[in-house]
Amino acid sequence: MHLSLNNKLSTDKIHYKNLEKKNYFIEEFENHSFFKPIFDKNYFKRYKFEKLVNKKNKIHVFGMGGSSLSSKMLMQFLKPANIDHRLFIYDNPYDELIIKKLDNHKISNFDKFIFISKSGKTLETNYFLEFVCKYLKTKKIKNFKKNFIFITENSDNFLKNYAIKNNILTFEHDHNIGGRFSIFSITGLLPLALLGYPIKNIIKSSKSAFAEFRRDREKICKYLFNFYFYQKKSKSNIFVGFSYNEKLTTLNEWYRQIFAESLGKNKNSITYISSLGSIDQHSQFQLYIDGPNDKSYIFFILKNKNKQKSLLDILQKGAIKTLSENKPIIGEISIDNNLKDYTKLIITLIYDIFLRAKIENINFLNQPAVEKLKKNTKIKI
């Protein structure tokens, strides 16, 4: 993984607030629960889902935010062609979209329907459940609930109680892992496992990525902190992330979520925008180039080892060159096309959130405004 920062600001007067003395808080960072599945060799054994694995499976995942983004971002990198072919993500309770996806193929016993809600009370997930039940009944599919799988906390909640009443297989959502950081947990990996992708391969790559992350932590920390410092010094309150390669698109969307939900807790918060390069070059770039100089940029780059560069590579290079003429803050993170580098990038972006929260003295794990929104949004299903 290669990091580069393009700017004209001086680094001479940067103060790291004793981050070096604290060893960049790396031990505290690693001890967070969302990394436990990587290091605990017995973590997945308790779930006992091996009998469900079949390479003929088609997996339908119903969940909001990190509950569905986690598996999508992994599959988007491993095999993008599986999205909406073998792995179907439902994160928008718009009836016509749900029906369109379900209608695209004939439902069989190889279709597994995974409903995910940590609290078991997520309004949209519970709506998905009722909607899918009605849909499958209209298609006269018998005993369809035997192909349902729930992931929720072991508590008195809607999903858990529904599962008990209807004898639905349920896996316990780790209480200590929030949805947006659930990439390495049962939430993120079960859909891939049921498709026949070996979880041990992801864990092995993650361990290797963590070893490299530890080795490079000083370089990574200073890069991330410099970027943050430049944003604050230049009063760059809008942070635009670009992805040109389809394999990195969902990662960019996920970073937008963890950035906003983890750090958006005061009036000085930075707004992150995920931008799809090839499309936005014909729209948003007019604003980015000639508009207010209040933005910083990050490019997520998948290295192309071919001598013949693709059109997307050419577009990306042109975008960086054009933006650079205005001398804004531009960062680039490039990775090789392998799971280890991709996992290292995921770890680095979580670490970015962790460091920013440390500097600003905020709790990056809670979401008080989201909880308030949930209380104000009620409907009988």
Shape: globular
Order of SSEs: EHHEHEHEHEHEHHHEHEHHEHEHH
What is the terminal-to-terminal distance?
Answer: 47 Å
Main β-sheet: number of strands, strand sense, barrel status?
Answer: 5 strands, mixed
In total, the number of domains comes to 2
Explain how this protein is built:
- Strands 1-10-9-7-8 form a 5-stranded mixed sheet, sandwiched between helices. A 5-stranded parallel sheet has the order 3-2-4-5-6, with helices on both faces.
- The chain is an alpha/beta fold and 381 residues long.
- The protein has 2 domains: 2-28 and 204-368, Rossmann fold; 54-195, Glucose-6-phosphate isomerase like protein, domain 1 (Rossmann fold).
- Helix 10 (249-263) links the parallel strand 7 (238-243) and strand 8.
- It is built from 15 helices and 10 strands.
